[in-house]
Design brief:
- The chain is of the alpha+beta class and about 140 residues long.
- About 50% of the residues lie in helices and about 15% in strands.
- The chain contains 6 helices and 5 strands, in the order E-H-E-H-H-E-E-H-H-H-E.
- A 5-stranded antiparallel sheet has the order 2-1-5-4-3.
- A hairpin with a 6-residue loop joins strand 3 (about 65-70) and strand 4 (about 75-80).
- The longest helix has 21 residues, at about 115-135.
Length: about 140
């Protein structure tokens, strides 16, 4: 589980990778959250949006790490273009539906996220994603 989670917008993998040691700071537009497994979360969100299987997405290499050591230390990974598109295009009711279901699933596994916090996360990510699509950038996640 990550202590600090920052989703941010970057022009490409190389630019995103450069922030692995200290995070995106003020260099890139970002939103911050904490204390949840962000790598699993993005896979779970994609499953909820598209009905894919969790293992299927992991086997496909999602999420793709662009910098850092996943086992020890900070890491930067990129959200799939498909997930970014879904977040950008989703109506508020759909974001809420996915967020509430994700929070329910996390609670079943003993991880209390809370529905309102989950909704806030996905709404914030939706805002980031809408800005990305217009400028050909990606949404990345830095975890420490």
């Amino acid at each position: 589980m990550s202590i600090i989670v920052k989703f941010f917008v970057a022009p490409d993998d190389a630019a995103a990778a450069r922030v692995v040691e200290g995070g995106p700071g003020l260099v890139f537009e970002s939103v911050s959250f904490g204390n949840f497994d962000s790598e699993s979360a993005v896979v779970e969100w994609e499953c909820l949006f598209f009905g894919d299987g969790f293992e299927e997405l992991l086997e496909a290499g999602e999420p793709r790490i662009v910098a850092g050591d996943d086992d020890d230390g900070c890491v930067v990974f990129v959200l799939s273009a498909r997930l970014v598109g879904a977040l950008a295009e989703a109506e508020p009711s759909r974001l809420r539906e996915v967020a509430v279901e994700w929070a329910r699933q996390r609670a079943e596994d003993g991880e209390e996220i809370g529905s309102e916090v989950a909704v806030e996360m996905l709404e914030s990510l939706g805002t980031l994603a809408r800005g990305v699509e217009a400028h050909g950038r990606g949404v990345y996640c830095w975890v420490a």
